[in-house]
Give the backbone structure.
Amino acid sequence: MLTRPAAVRPRPYRAARTVLGGLTLAYLGLRVWVRARPRPIPYGWAWLLENPWRRHYRHPERLAAACDLSPVDHVLEAGCGSGLFTPALAARCARLTALDADPRYLALTARQTADLANVTVQHGDLAALPLPDASVDAVVLVSVLTEVPRPVDALRECVRVLRPGGRVVIGEELFAPEYARSGTVDTWARDAGLKLAQKQGNGWAYLNTYVVT
Ligand SMILES: C[S@@+](CC[C@H](N)C(=O)[O-])C[C@H]1O[C@@H](n2cnc3c(N)ncnc32)[C@H](O)[C@@H]1O
């Protein structure tokens, strides 16, 4: 009877290793590519934002609670995407402006919030926010800052529209190829004139809160 030499792995094991290695390499390649030239997520990838697995670590209600909003706040959710978090955030503040640079994503948010009287859906760019100075109490940026070519300038825009004592809440997720580490975001925030107030979450999905200094 023929026996397999002990050093040779069974075929399914090798196949799984090859697939996993290929996927890891593809992910790392994509990561290098998008970090070199940050760009908005394609509209065709909207399903990635809404996938049920994401809700386990980015549950909309838990994220909204972690933002620590006040019932009198005017909140800007910039880069609202498909509006996954918009209703939960709107339930915790007086008024919410949901802004996105892509009108197709905005249309999804408008559909999600059609029956919410305190939500305004607005087309705009983080690089030049269509809001007056000192007009909002909190800015929420979930998985958007790393898609912007000049994140420090975008944060300076957020500071411009914030009232004194206002806050910026920034969330990033390792799953996204453009992911930046929490410490990198701290540096961007400091350069934009923000001071770290709180860190929540972990390396997989974190949420940092900064205040205007
Ligand atoms: C990865 S999605 C995240 C959407 C949502 N915050 C979420 O976590 O489900 C990023 C969103 O930011 C938008 N975006 C990218 N760059 C932007 C910019 N400069 N100004 C405004 N929105 C931007 C994209 O169109 C996209 O809808």
Remarks:
- The mean pLDDT is 92.
- Residues 40-41, 49, 78-81, 84, 100-102, 105, 125-127, 142-144, 147-148 surround S-adenosylmethionine (CB under 6 Å).
- DSSP finds eight helices and seven strands in the chain.
